[in-house]
Amino acid sequence: MSLSTLSSAVRLTEVLWALSLLVQTAEYLRLEAPLAREGVWQWAIQREELARAPSALRALLDVLQTERVWHAHLLMRALLGVCLLAGFVHTWMVLVLFLGTVVILVRWRGAFNGGSDFMTLVVVTGLLIGHAATPWVGATMAWRSGLGYIAVHTLTSYFLSGVVKLRYRGWRTGRALTSLLEGGLHGPLHRSSVFRGKRVACVLSWVFILWECSVPIVICGPRWALAWCAVAPVFHFMVYWHFGLNRFFWAWCAALPALAVAFHA
Amino acid sequence: MMLAVLVYVVFLVLTLWFRGPVFNGRGLYLLRSFFPNWRFYHRVTHRAVLCTRYCNRAGEWSHWQPGWPRARRRLSTLFHNPAGNLALVEQSLIEHLSADVQAADDGAAVASLPTYRLVSRLARARVAASCLEEPPVAWQFQLCLVPPYDDGLAGTEVLTSPEYTS
């Protein structure tokens, strides 16, 4: 892997993760009311789940969850996201973004949007590894490690997600897909929806499964990896369109540059 | 490198049959993003649904209203989707309460769980949103499990709250 390829992948990862961060932060800013004292997600109730945490940590979280501090934190994340997008990055900024991500996830009881939170955390961890390790082991080794961390998780995410579906009869017959769309964010399905057709649902399920299970081909060579990663955003866009999972689109797009280059040293 | 990745892929497949110990704990739950399992939608199981009803000033109770996570499909939501994502996180909370209720040994203790209290606030907010013209005098919520496939099977009630006065 040439240094230029590596540095291009790092830069692209930073830009895409920054876009993902800005999308998420704009949404969190719109969702301050449900987190307020009168809202559904009252911190006074949620903090009981941290009863066994050290008192200093609880006190720190109490301060961070106050409405003003929460708002200021989100604005700071947006600002850091813009800096990241512009290429103005320091290790401390990535560390602050990493820690802030953890605080936000704790506020939403561990995850706001499931898988997209997991991948957001994976990519910022990879960025943190790259930035923090550079002074110690040099840029090439540091970024190989950082992007490698992201790539292994990304490969795992697709492959496991595909193989577990393969084991489940409902997915093999297509019935699961119809049921999930029926109960999904844009459900229920229209009476004449093509997804109600057993054959269509079955074919699409198999496309879904085979696509996810095929991810190990990214190790076959840089061209295979690039081709696979070029198709991936289309797959995520379809998932977004049918399931309403916009954050998944951005979170996984941010991980794709690492998947494209990390296995071809 | 290729061999290492192939060995890893084989390891991943093996983990589907040979599972290690399961670690539980509230703290671990809050930090679960550090231990992603990546098994999205792998099983289609019963769906937990929050149903609410309210009583008006005449003392008449409404029908149970099921609350499904729903949002309009628009391309702009690719960039900004707070309502859709809030609906999804609320559904996760409802499903978590459903799991807590089924795991609870003592039914009476359920009401003290943070999940119950948060869902209770969610139910109250949904009732308030559904009767803007005349505030209800009382309200109640119920948690039901709906079968995954449309097999004509009825939903199962797993929890009915007491009647709360507004």
Spans of chain A of at least 5 consecutive residues whose pLDDT stays below 50 are none
Overall shape of chain B: elongated
Termini separation of chain A (Å)? 4 Å
**Morphology of chain A:** globular
DSSP, total strands of chain B: 5
What proportion of the residues of chain B form beta strands (DSSP E)? 15-25%
Residue share in helix of chain B: 25-40%
Can you tell me the number of structural domains of chain A?
A: 1
Helix content of chain A: over 70%
Please state the structural category of chain B. alpha+beta
E-strand count of chain A = 0
- Beta percentage of chain A is under 5%
Task: Tell me the number of structural domains of chain B.
Answer: 2
Q: Rounded to an integer, what's the Rg of chain B over CA atoms?
A: 20 Å
Mean pLDDT across every amino acid position of chain A: 93
Largest sheet report of chain A: none
Characterize the largest beta sheet of chain B: strand count, sense, and whether it forms a barrel.
5 strands, antiparallel
What is the CA–CA distance across the termini of chain B? 64 Å
User: Would you identify the regions of chain B where 5 or more consecutive residues have pLDDT less than 50?
Assistant: none
Biggest interface reads: A-B, 72 and 59 residues
